[in-house]
Specification:
- 2 copies of one chain form a homodimer.
- Chain A is an alpha+beta fold.
- Chain A has a 7-stranded antiparallel beta sheet with strand order 15-12-14-13-17-18-16, sandwiched between helices.
- In chain A, helix 10 crosses helix 12 and helix 13 packs antiparallel against helix 14.
- At the A-B interface, strand 9, helix 8, strand 11, helix 9 and helix 11 of A face strand 9, helix 8, strand 11, helix 9 and helix 11 of B.
Amino acid sequence: MGIKDILEKVLRKDQISTSESELYRHSRDESSHDPVLPDVVCFPESTEDIQQILHIANEQAVAVTAYGFGSGLEGQVIPMEKGISLNLERMNQVIEFSPEDMTVTVEPGITRTMLNEKINKYGLQFPIDPGADATIGGMAATNASGTTAVRYGSMRDCILDLEVVLADGRVIHTGTKAKKTSSGYSLTGLFTGSEGTLGIITKITLKLFGIPEYLIAARCTFPTVEECAEGAYAVLANDISITRMELVDDTSIKTVNAYGDYTFPEQHSLFFEFAGTKDTVDAQVAVVKELMEDIGCDNWAVATTTKERHELWRARHEMAYAFQHQQGISYFITDVCVPISKLSVIIHYTRELMDGYHIHGGILGHVGDGNFHTFLTFEKENEEEKSKVLEVTEKIARKAIELGGTCTGEHGVGIGKKAFQRQEHGDAVDVMKSMKQVLDPSNILNPGKIFM
Amino acid sequence: MGIKDILEKVLRKDQISTSESELYRHSRDESSHDPVLPDVVCFPESTEDIQQILHIANEQAVAVTAYGFGSGLEGQVIPMEKGISLNLERMNQVIEFSPEDMTVTVEPGITRTMLNEKINKYGLQFPIDPGADATIGGMAATNASGTTAVRYGSMRDCILDLEVVLADGRVIHTGTKAKKTSSGYSLTGLFTGSEGTLGIITKITLKLFGIPEYLIAARCTFPTVEECAEGAYAVLANDISITRMELVDDTSIKTVNAYGDYTFPEQHSLFFEFAGTKDTVDAQVAVVKELMEDIGCDNWAVATTTKERHELWRARHEMAYAFQHQQGISYFITDVCVPISKLSVIIHYTRELMDGYHIHGGILGHVGDGNFHTFLTFEKENEEEKSKVLEVTEKIARKAIELGGTCTGEHGVGIGKKAFQRQEHGDAVDVMKSMKQVLDPSNILNPGKIFM
């Protein structure tokens, strides 16, 4: 009896698929990692469904890989050892919304846009913004963040409680609905970012934030990347609670101008977003303008209307597309994060590598966090170019670790960053492995990820 | 050969003490939990010393309990199974200070005041403020926070990396110096708040924050605790980055007026602190004043000068002393944290309990976090009164958990909150225990804490 037949004992037929198109959809994510087809795709509708599936998977020694929206960038959803792809899209409900507590409990398959649509009318938002319309479950599993991390942190900072089904079918809660806790070991932080290797997340309680009544975007340019980093530091050191602060290098600006018909000054740029009440925002903008001018910025421009602001940030978001959506082009994205003082060092290193290897690409940075991405493009199916790009991503990751940073600031380890875990974490890798061993002794949960 | 003789093989004589006064000092903390004398006190001076001590402890099956400043409130430093008290006061150095990264790496024995003295001149601060001048190691071990958590979070939010000596002597690093990471399992969060039961923290890398150029304190009163909670909610919902926001109930105000010769209006009060540049702070104060007046506050008062501001916050800090430092009086402090919407419910419940049991005490709350403390006093050596107080602390803790909260928001589990772990965490307690088992199979690290 095949795994599909066994699953049919506990799930309805429409919760199980082995159609070619579904197997293909669940074989890959947004990255260029090689796809692997699962044997079967399941569509659980409840925590109980997942318990049943994991019981079967344990009995049959079949791998289970959770799937959210497929927008990951390190192959976390690719079922390396085939088996079951666990698609959580039907578990997409808001379970409990407490505006007065500024918390919401959701199922993992809800996307951040769906969630915000439901809560924005109460003046509340979930502001973590990884760019793609990822599911909250996927964002929790990878500890995602994005442009707003400088203000709101990463997923781990915004999760109060997780309901998790463990490999053996036990269901636990990792936290409570209280904002702070010193009770017991922090399992919330441990399961967040564990990429489906320690358990399947079935509910997530999130901190929410007020929607600021007033927003302003601004940008300026500097002759060098060092001065951009200096500018970012000045904002942080003055304890200004900026909501976004992004570095875009000159090459990236040129690319987006060409792609999107923009006319940004083609120099290294900082993009800012300020949020709050009108008075506090106006005061912040004035302070930041002065700080930037002290360092020697050019082209300070403020977008006060909603239209201008959207325009400016749309351009920033289109940077990614400008590199990605070119005919016949594939790409890998680096995601290193370093201490702020090392940012200009590693950006220079990266740009020199790209030039040396003749790789076209751009650098976009969440500069307030020391996190930046390099888009490294290659011609589709060109194995030689692809291997050059992979060589460069490796060099950048190892350099970041040497500089006291990490190989991944927000995308997670998945497949692409496994090779750097020992360099980055040393013997702590063995501690991590011992937790995996204790919680999933048969290694059924997303095998082949995080660890070599 | 006794444990002292064995320790003398690896430590100098002045690093080992069995003097009565040292044993006494290491038998207790600031709480009223029963003291237990260790067999011996060690004063390690390096990570290597601690590795040696743990090797001996493992061989001899002797308990090791870390000791920072002794300011804990749940008996974490009390050596329940005697053995070795590991006093970290000689490991109190700044190892690496990177103002440009806004990070610092310190040894565990440095206190937060010592640390701030070294870094304030660079315009930077470590703002977590639990009240006492605790060590950074102790604060990390209990995931401490305090009045500034509403702005800066708890220790777990501010730690980038820990160096930890595991029970078997291995030394690991749990993170990096980068501000964000999605690499591997979050061991930083796991060891933070583990109260010396999973390993001994030997280095801590902290996020630092800019010292705001301008501060304003303010206060107002409301007829009911519900309106205080409503006021706090309005501040949070408007995304105003306040640095402190404290609830003090009418009884506590009366007590501090009597104790400190203050003349605060004797009603339920909110205390605020705003920080930033002068313009942003002035704007924030104006917004909050308007929000409070909309809800119906009385007695809005602003302290603009440093002297007035210190006066106002000194009064808040003296609340604790007003209850504690009365001749012949002991006390227990509750530390529950609930969803904000449940705050007035549990505060009423608490006040009714105190009245019903005829217990004198006060309620002080980190209202922005839903965390509050009840000082429950009893006559020293009066076992009947003490057991009444313990009964009330139990009822408050269990009520908080029922309301979706936690038995401890910032003090930790130690001895006093062990009994509530199963109610709060359910089967997750077994997951926690399995991690303890895997990392400390002989249970030498702070036995008798966290778990029953």
